[in-house]
Amino acid sequence: MAAYIFRRLLLVVPTLFGIILINFAVVQFAPGGPVEQMLAELRGEGQTLGRLTGEGPGEVRAPGGGGAGGGEGPVGTYRGARGLDPAIVAEIERIFGFDKPAHVRFGEMMWGYLTFDFGRSLFRDRPVVDLIVEKMPVSISLGLWSTLIIYLVSIPLGIRKAVRDGTRFDVWTSGVVLVGYAIPGFLFAILLVVFFAGGSFVQWFPLRGLASSGAETWPFWQRALDYAWHMALPTLALVIGGFAGLTMLTKNAFLDEIGKQYVVTARAKGNSETRILYGHVFRNAMLLIIAGFPAAFISILFTGALLVEIVFSLDGLGLLGFEAAIRRDYPIMFGTLYIFTLMGLVLQIVGDVMYTVVDPRIDFEARK
C-alpha cells in the first residue's frame, strides 16, 4: 500500500502541471484582462495616474513571480488604449507583469508555486496566500460541517430505506429528500434569512460573519456556542439539498448487495439480519459511497457555498474566487485553482486508502 500511495503522490505533480498549463493557455485568449480593465478605467472614468506611480491608496503593484496573463497582446491591440500615451500603456503592462512573453510568465508562476508563493493580488495589493488563509476558515467551516452532517444523516437513512424498501417510511422519506433536493440552496438560504434572521419575522440567528463582535475575549465554551449560532443557517442551507443524492445512492447500493447470493447464504446459515447487514453487506455497499466522498467535499467546500456566502455575508473562498474571476485577478484565480486541485488530488488518494479500511480484501498493490 505504501508503494501505491507513493506512486499516486508522484502523479500529483504532472497532473497539477497539466491542469494549470491548460487553464493558463485558455486564459490567454480571454478578453477583458486586468490591463484592459485598467485602461478602460483610465480612459473612461478619468482615473489619475497615482495608481501607476504608487501614490495614494489605489496603488497597484506587480504580483510576485509575474502576472498570469490573459487576453492582451501588444500595446497597439488594446482597444481601451486609444487616446492614451503609449508610455502609460507600457507602464501598465510592466506593473501587471504583462511586458514579458506568456511562456516566461508561466515559468515564473510555476517556479513560485513550488514554494507556495502565489504572488500578489493585482487589485487588492496583498499576497495571495494571505488572502486565501484569511478566507479559508469560512469555507472550511461550511464545507466540513455540511459534508459531515450530510453523511451522518444520509447513510443511516439510506440503510433504513433499503431495509424497509417499499414501506410507508420509504415513500414519505423519499418525498421529503426529493423536495429538499428540488429547492436551490441559495433560495432556501433566502427563506431562512426571511424567516429566522430578521427578514420579515423573527431574528433568532445572526446574518453575517462567524463570530459576534468581541467574542475573542469570551470563554471557549461561549465562543463555541457563538460559532455554532452563526453557522446554523448557512450550514442548513447547504445540506438541505445534499441529502437526496447520497441517501438514494446508499439505499440503492445496499439493495443491490442485499439481493446477492452471499446474503441468501448467510441467511441460510442462521445469521441475524443485523449481522448480515453490518457484517457482510455494509463493507461492500459502502465502497461506492466512499468513492464519492472527495468529490462531494470539494464540491461543497469550493463551489456550492458561493451563493450561500453571498446571502449570509460570509467572506469565504467562494466569494474571493468569484470576484477574482470577474476582475481577472489572475494570481488569485490560479493560486486558488492550484490549491483546490492539490486538495482534490490528495483527497482522492485518501479515498483509495479508505477503500482498504472499509474492505481489507482490496489490495491496490496486486493490480498490474
Automatic annotation (TrEMBL):
Keyword Chaperone: no
Domain ABC transmembrane type-1: 136-351
Ranges that cross the membrane: 9-30, 138-159, 171-197, 227-250, 285-312, 332-358
Annotated compartments: Cell membrane
Entry keywords, A to Z: Cell membrane, Membrane, Transmembrane, Transmembrane helix, Transport
InterPro entries: MetI-like (IPR000515)
UniProt KW Cell membrane keyword: yes
Membrane topology: Multi-pass membrane protein
Residue ranges with Gly residues bias: 53-72
Chain positions covered by the region annotation Disordered: 51-72
Protein family membership: Belongs to the binding-protein-dependent transport system permease family.
PANTHER family associated with the record: INNER MEMBRANE ABC TRANSPORTER, INNER MEMBRANE ABC TRANSPORTER PERMEASE PROTEIN YEJB
Protein name, UniProt field: Microcin C ABC transporter permease YejB
Organism: Falsiroseomonas tokyonensis
Lineage: Bacteria, Pseudomonadati, Pseudomonadota, Alphaproteobacteria, Acetobacterales
